[in-house]
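Deliverable D4.2, example record:
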Amino acid sequence: MDINIKKFKELMKNENAILLDTRTLEEFENGFIKNAINYDIFQVDFRDEILKLDRDKLYLVYCRSGGRSANAMEFMKANGFTAVYNLIGGVLAWVQNGNELVEEQE
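Output generated by the structure prediction step:
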């Protein structure tokens, strides 16, 4: 399901939520949403790596503008993941709405 920033931030509070950044590693290293894990959709092993994830968790996916993460969400839903949410507008919208990106995990 595509969701707006407000809903995305609400779901981030869920202790079972996992943030997946589907951008390239270079994009990710230039700034990401706090606690996100990079799963580059362009990597050859992207699908194999996604299929290793726990299907019972809550996944919040995003990319630069929402397209790549929408594709990732559809792949995940088609493979048995039930709680997958895509951030409309991606990090561009995130930053435009006054939210921060970080450059390293805490």
